[in-house]
Amino acid sequence: MASSDPDKLITKADKLTKLSMTRWSADWRGATSLYEQAALGFRLAKKYEKAKVAFEKASKGQEMLSSPWDAAKHMESAAALAKELGNWREVADFYRQASMLYSECGRAQPASDALAKGARALEEAAPDEAVTLYTEACDTLEEDGKEQMAFDLYRAATSVYIKLEKYLDAATFLIRWGVSADKCNATHSQCKAYLSAIIVYLYANDFDQAQKCYNDCSQIDAFLSSDQSRCAAKLLSAYTDGDVEEIKRVAQSSTISNLDHAIIRLARKLPTGDVSGLKSETGKEQEEPLDEDDLT
């Protein structure tokens, strides 16, 4: 039937949105319905490029009809088709637009979910953009006071940073996770995040930063009295003693085995550098007591 031809539906819809001598106002309601029918028809026929464009137009139509929720849904459909086509730039752009439309509805969770879908779609093809989207998804939930809903996003972003070998960024994100967990009284998650950050610093061969992180986190009573804190203390002590076997033993502990897989894999490879120097430096500090008469 001619009216079911998606190309003809698009042509008819486009005419309804254009003003002319005989059409003084656009018929967005009629056009949007036609765009939606065309989009479904193209998708069924696996004409993904045309389906993507039709969903974009349907989204614009729903915006013109003051229906941001439906507009967001169509934009997500366009994003999914952009993924099928390997148009990674469009994947990010469309999911961001969908997120903004959900935000117009006052819905933080779907807005964050849209960004997370984009991030997952881009993890392999554009990992740097993926972590940016994960970060924006976390921002959206944090701004709405829904930190606990973001835990999987913190985990996913950390994993991508580790794959990119951006260990300092991974540790920073883990500390951010710990802070958010504190806000929603998720003490166990908070302590695991802090121990994970310390492990990442050690894997990056940055003992000083690991020690500083431990000292800072120890100001928090919940962490100080936790199994994760005791595990971190043993690990740092083994580093200070230059005891490779003890480092490996602590890395096999049940406390570390209960962390996320990406962190466990790093812990099992510790130490990543020569730790004998730490022992000699510590010994030197102990051998050279402060001379109170020396003011230099």
Automatic annotation (TrEMBL):
GO terms for molecular function: soluble NSF attachment protein activity; syntaxin binding. Keywords: ER-Golgi transport, Membrane, Protein transport, Transport. Belongs to the SNAP family. It comes from Daucus carota subsp. sativus. One of its GO terms (cellular component) is SNARE complex. It is a peripheral membrane protein. Coiled coil: none annotated. Pfam families: SNAP. Residues 274-296 are annotated as: Disordered. This is Gamma-soluble NSF attachment protein. InterPro entries: NSF_attach, TPR-like_helical_dom_sf. GO terms for biological process: intracellular protein transport; vesicle-mediated transport. It is found in: Membrane.
